[in-house]
Structures are given as C-alpha cells and as structure tokens.
C-alpha cells in the first residue's frame, strides 16, 4: 500500500514537471506606442496611471506576467484571461478603433469600474492596489463622457457641412 502511494506520487510529480514544458504564449509582442491608448487619447496622468495599474495586465500588450504565470496550471488560466480580456478591450491597439468604437470602449470601461466588475475579483487579492479608487473611477468616467460629447459635436459639425 505504501509502495503504491509512492509510485502514484512519483507519477504525479513527473506529470507536473512535464506540464511545465507547455509554455503558454502571451503574445506580448511590442506594439508601437503611437498606436496605444495614451498616445491616441491623451488622458491626464491620473487616468493613465490608474488604467496602467488596474487594467493593463490583462488589457494590453504591456502586461507583466507574474511568476505563477509561467507555472502550469495558473499559466493556462492567466493566458485565457489575457486573451479574452484583450479581445474585448486592448489599450495597446487604440489606433485601429473607429471613433464610435473608441467611445463604446470608454463607456464600457467606466461601467465595469463603477459596477466593481473590473478588475476581476480573483485578481484583486493578488494585486493589492489594483482596485481603482472611487475618485479615479469618477475622473475616468467624467473624462470618457467629455470625449463622447466632443465626438458628437464633431459629428454634428460634419453633418451640417
Ligand atoms: C485579471 C485580468 C483582468 C483585469 C486586471 C481587468 N480585466 Fe477587464 N476583462 C478581463 C476578461 C477576462 C474579460 C472578458 C470577460 C468575458 O469575456 O466575459 C474582460 C472584459 C472587460 C470589458 C468588456 C466587458 C464586456 O462586457 O464587454 C471591459 C470594458 C473591461 N474588461 C474593462 C476593464 C477595466 C476598465 C479594467 C481596469 C479597471 C479591467 N478590465 C481589468 C480581464 C481583466
């Protein structure tokens, strides 16, 4: 019985080590900074810093992969979050958004923060300080709203011409 226990343990240990050979690719290839959110939208530093701190790990190519991001199985989970997160909102690739899409992304981001849905709940305990402060969320939402108003004004302008 003891022997079986040891053999099973050894098999599990080998399986764990073999699983590490599977390296997830995070596709964090550098994207031109000029295409990024900061360069395209010029948010002030309060907003920019908050987004970098709270959102960029999953929503950009500038994410920092923590050590457990290189260890299976957490690596797999993390990779999935980054892939799904960037499919919805990618701060590294703002240049390819139409003005309408940009406005929609900003509105959604504001809503997710106001409803405390982002950052994801399980991310927060591991990243103290990642939850945006209410005043930062408010600053972001006000700014996002002003961007939308600017855009509507521009559209009216072109419609009138
Ligand atoms: C731990 C990774 C992680 C962090 C950090 C994170 N997100 Fe997300 N976010 C995701 C994932 C994963 C999805 C996709 C969820 C889905 O597909 O259901 C997502 C989706 C979104 C969406 C799209 C929601 C929708 O319903 O379409 C918005 C907007 C968003 N996040 C905003 C933010 C903002 C703003 C921050 C920072 C305050 C943030 N996220 C931080 C992982 C993250």
Q: Kindly estimate the percentage of residues that lie in beta strands according to DSSP.
A: under 5%
- Quick check: average pLDDT? 90
Please, how many helices?
7
Number of strands: 0
Enumerate the distinct ligands. heme C
Give the C-alpha Rg: 21 Å
Q: Which structural class fits the helix and strand makeup?
A: mainly alpha
Please describe the biggest sheet, giving its number of strands, its sense, and whether it closes into a barrel. none
Instruction: Kindly give the count of domains.
Output: 1
Please trace the helix and strand order, writing H or E for each element.
HHHHHHH
Low-confidence stretches: none
Please report the distance between the alpha carbons of the first and last residues.
86 Å
Overall geometric form:
elongated
Helical content (DSSP H or I, runs of 4+): 55-70%
Overall description:
Helix 6 (99-114) runs antiparallel to helix 7. The chain has helices at residues 2-20, 37-41, 45-54, 56-59, 74-88, 99-114, 134-160. The termini are far apart. It has one domain (25-160). The longest helix has 27 residues, at 134-160. It is an all-alpha fold. It has 7 helices and no strands.
In brief, what are we looking at here?
It contains 7 helices and no strands. It has 161 residues and is an all-alpha fold.
Architecture blueprint of SSEs:
Layout: H1 2-20, H2 37-41, H3 45-54, H4 56-59, H5 74-88, H6 99-114, H7 134-160
Helix pairs in contact: 6-7
Bound molecules: heme C (HEC).
The site of heme C has 19 residues, from helix 4, helix 5 and helix 6.
